Amino acid sequence: MSTPDATAAAEAVRSGEVSARELVTASLERIGTGNGELNAFVHLDPEGALAAADRVDTARARGEALGPLAGVPFGVKDLEDCAGQPTTRGSRWYANGPAATRDDLHVERFRAAGAIPVGKTATPEFGAWGYTASPLLGVTRNPWDLRRTPGGSSGGTAAAVSAGFVPFGTASDGGGSIRGPGASCGLPGLRPTYGRVPTLNVTRLAQNAVNFALATTVRDTALLLDLAAGPDPRDRTSHPATGIVHTDAIERLDVTGLRATWSADLGFVVVDPEVERITAAAAEALVGAAALRPTDHTVTFDDYILTYVFMEGADQFVDVPADWTERLDELDPLVVDGWRSTGGVDLPTFARVERDRRRIELRVAELFEHTDVLLTPTNACPPFAAEGPMPEEIGGRACHGGHAALLTMLANIANLPSISLPAGVTDEGLPVGLMVTAPRHREDVCLRLARLWEEAAPWPRLAPGR
Fold it and tell me: Which of 5, 208, 268, 392 has the most CB atoms in a 10 Å sphere around its CB?
């Protein structure tokens, strides 16, 4: 059985064309055949998934109403809780912990819509990198090219979806961890505004990281947002419902004449020339396809990597073991220095970081006085070596290791909705993403432009040969 998209799979279950058990069985078989080379899934729950599928099939046989994701198998990123399955966060600190007793809120909402979690997908330790590898979970590879990374930190989900193991999977984005893997694996990847999708047991000091999902089509992405979004009393930062039905907005929202500004590098990012060429051409084509109005506004930011690192680091100490300082040797050696440096930050230093962030937010507000959407590359370079590390040279130019993900980080610092769209492939056949960033709360604009691009320049739903 080929892998349908999530919407089509659920429609097939509701119509009786296929059973939920058949969908889940086919998914588990594909994982069993292909996961050895990809390492996308790091834990499976076949018994629980098949039992859930049987419940869906029984409900259909009784004539009960089925949810919009009835019988659709999905993966859950291993930074997020899925009841009955472990959450290791890619770290040996949590390798032997008990199974989660409840779902994260977006997992809970997808499950309530009828979707069936089949297992957990790989993440780097604590989601720290733009590639997916850790001493605990191993190296995850890109189904487009096994030598390359699927991106990070949602690389396991991106690889699983792009390989056709599951129609969708959960993902999170603290610095580009939905959009970067989406770009690396030829998928659309939406980062909603922080608070649009509520969270449970997630720290909210930095308010940069969002939980959501990755799928293969804009229609699925819009449906998943409609299901995941909305307030929850357990999350004090969650937003009220918008009243927008995104599956309608992708077809009907009028975006004609919106101002669009292109920036290859935000004024400071080192970007691979081939990536710039591919994404600049895609941006021009999107402007034409959506009847946007291009501006000549110049976008200039200073390097905000240190602001991001200390801002994002505020959250990592909330749930650490009490004896963490004595257990640093258990961590990926590449993350240890970060724990040491952020572990010594005092309040005056943190206040300076907050002032820096406010300055960036003001610059972003000024930018959107001149434009309605910002178009950039998603990643500064094509997918690099699966084992990492983050590259310190891009396009023959020296840079620090954060440059590969700096373009996506702006939306996390300023809390903007942003979507990566498949823009084309390099001469080596590696996927490249075009990123569309809109003002706060305008996921509908991101998704409508994504749908127009999907119609104008359709992309392969799955990696070649999958």
Answer: 208
